[in-house]
Amino acid sequence: MTTKTVSNEKELNTAKQINKLIKNHRVGNLAKSREDMNSFDEYMCLAYSVRDFLAKKLIETEKKVKKRNPKKVYYLSLEFLMGRSLGNSLINLDLHSAAEEALNQQGYTLEELEELEVDAGLGNGGLGRLAACFLDSMATLDLPATGCGIRYNYGIFKQKIQDGYQVEEPDNWLSYGNPWEFRRPERARSIKYYGHTGEFVDDTGNLCYKWYDTEDVLAMPYDMPIPGYKTETTNTLRLWSARSIFDFNLQSFNRGDYINANINKSLTENITKVLYPNDNNYEGKELRLKQQYFFVSASLQDILDDFKKNNDNILDFSQKIAIQLNDTHPAIAVPELMRILLDEEKMTWDNAWKIVTETFAYTNHTLLPEALETWPMPMMQKLLPRIVDIILEINYHFMRKVMNTYPGDMERMKRMSVIDENGEKNIRMAFLAIIGSHSVNGVAALHTELLQKGLFKDFSELFPEKFNNKTNGITPRRWLLKANPGLSELITGKIGNEWSKNLDELKKIEKFKKNKTFIKKWQEVKQKNKKRLADYIYKTMGIEINENSIFDVQVKRIHEYKRQLLMALYMITCYNKIKENPKASFVPRTFIFSGKAAPGYVMAKLIVKFINAIASVVNNDSDVGDKMKVVFVPNYGVSVAEKIIPAADLSEQLSTAGKEASGTGNMKFALNGALTIGTLDGANIEIKNEVGDKNIFIFGLKAHEVTQLRESGYDPNSYVESSPELQKTIWLIRTGFFSPENRDLFKPIVDNLLIYGDTYMHCADFNSYVDAQEQVEKLYVTPDKWTEKTIINVANMGVFSSDRTIRQYADEIWNIT
């Protein structure tokens, strides 16, 4: 937010209060004098001061919930990509101006201190960022909600680019502590692994089961307060950290066995050491499974304990508790809740299953079959024997239902079984989530349709009432109010600030789309944002970019289906045009990429190198000059996104139609005044429907055309032969133009396109993409017409608020108020 003079007496008093708290924390938390403080110390004191405000609201919220005993929702997710907490908390608590005033009195600026905060390493991509947006909306809508996840010691990794290659370094985000959390040792839970199961008959003659000789791990909870925007509600994100139950082995230490004294503790705590351990080997897979069971079991024990404090009858559990499974990672919650209800609460199978299926709801986030998690039966049998017993029993009952519904259809039974018996037995976790939930939702209209017609067709036919769509959304507080203060102030000056809680209010700015004064101010805001990003790129990367060029941006996880490669091929085409006639008129472009490739994803990492190799050639060619630049911004995360997205002119959403579930980056860009170039995939379709066909650049095959082309025999070479531009582009790659030190470096990219079938149909969509880019350039050279379309885009983003999405979840799935 921009600095402004504080004249409101309440804000001045609050500023004094903040300064008093900062002084108290300087002494009480840091034990430092004013003279010994540095800027990071000042940030920590401010963070602790803001946390004091959060703590009061958190206590009041918990009191209110306890008194009213409403139905509560628990959001289980393996990722929560929260970003920085300071600025967001100040905005939601309505303390931003007061904090600015307090810091100005101390000789600091708020922006300076905000830059010192490290992004919390709790997520990687869209899944985790969506979860963070949802938590913000739940609190803003005053819903009684708790997020449940893992407190990773290390984020997925810190990305550096060395010689064009991605290099992974540890993301030790907790190295200086985390002022935004509260440790809750009194709520620690014990988690079981390994051992074996046995049967026994209890005093009443009932057959019971017990899990014996287990290796137990302690789950320690840490709570992060999640404030709603200008509301009294502050909810909790509860994150679990692994601890050894036996901790330090003093006997081994006293015998001089220093290594074994600490080894069990270290192995135990590895469970929550790093986000998504590399699962290319057995140990990595087992650790990931341990992670999932760890946070699910701890969360369910905690939820049941909370329920019992306010309710007497366990049969009322699903009337008071709703649990949302964010993708397949927490699916093991289905058999784990059954275990708790059967083994610990001594319920009958039918009663327990009724509670489970009425409590859980499942959100699917992928259309890629290979992304649906499965676990080898032997691994799970070894690690979680009691859970396997229950999964087999669930599958037995389910197969009976399928058999009764479709007598004699053995192929259908094989397709729908939780146990995949093709080769080594595997447990299909997505199937388990569908069977054990009362609701299964996709995250965009096309995604949900394709789930029902394709990936989960059999289940949709058996349980049509379960399937529904909940198109994703983003929080306007983080992604406009905080990320783009200039545009926020311009909009608020015209229509008031109700839009920050009701994004549909943005519709009111559409009437100013031809207002010359408004257009000029809008353009000035965009130009300031572009300068800010250009300064950041120059400061961190040493690349000077043309601030008057089209900022053409693709930022997201590096994956073949997202088609960063398609944009790279187009960049080479642009370069070729400049080289053919350097003096010709050319609309300047800055191509901006950012995103991480999974450490074990060889092709994605090669694409990162390829983009940087193109950059190395283009950025150093005197014929090109400032007509074109290519930039790969390293270590993409929320804070980097907050710099890039407000500056973007063009938002690249290039996934092969039918592959992207929804996307939320497309929404963030459009909300910040970028125009979209993209396929009819995911939420692009719904964005097009809202902004109108003339205000978005759509290209390429549709989802059904992709399917038809593949079934009829797709030959990428025929498309290359019909495109001289693509021929020349591929020829340059093949001859080693971008890798003279190793001519065959990018041969796997060419082979994937021409020999191995071009799985994601880059060649088929290339000409259409180039045509759409020509339309982009024709519009960009008429700035007022371009700006008019960006205003229309922003004005029609109301439906993409996460507040709308969460209202739908609350009304149609969770039944909470």
Q: Can you put this structure into words, describing what you see?
A:
This protein is α/β, with parallel strands linked by helices. The longest helix is centred in the first third of the chain and has 30 residues, at 39-68.
Strand and helix layout:
Blueprint: H1 9-28, H2 39-68, E1 72-76, H3 86-92, H4 96-106, H5 110-114, H6 126-140, E2 145-150, E3 158-162, E4 165-169, E5 182-183, E6 189-193, E7 196-201, E8 207-212, E9 215-227, E10 234-244, H7 250-254, H8 258-269, H9 282-310, H10 317-320, E11 321-326, H11 333-344, H12 349-359, E12 360-363, E13 374-376, H13 377-383, H14 385-405, H15 410-416, E14 419-420, E15 426-428, H16 429-435, E16 439-442, H17 445-455, H18 457-462, E17 467-469, H19 476-482, H20 485-495, H21 516-541, E18 550-555, H22 564-580, E19 589-594, H23 602-618, E20 628-633, H24 638-644, E21 650-653, H25 665-671, E22 675-678, H26 684-691, E23 697-698, H27 703-712, H28 716-721, H29 724-734, H30 747-754, H31 762-780, H32 783-795, H33 802-814
Parallel strand pairs: 1-2, 1-11, 2-10, 11-12, 12-16, 16-17, 18-19, 18-21, 19-20, 21-22, 22-23
Antiparallel strand pairs: 3-4, 5-9, 6-9, 7-8, 9-10, 13-15, 14-15
Helix pairs in contact: 1-2, 1-4, 3-19, 6-33, 9-11, 11-12, 11-14, 13-14, 21-32, 22-23, 22-29, 22-31
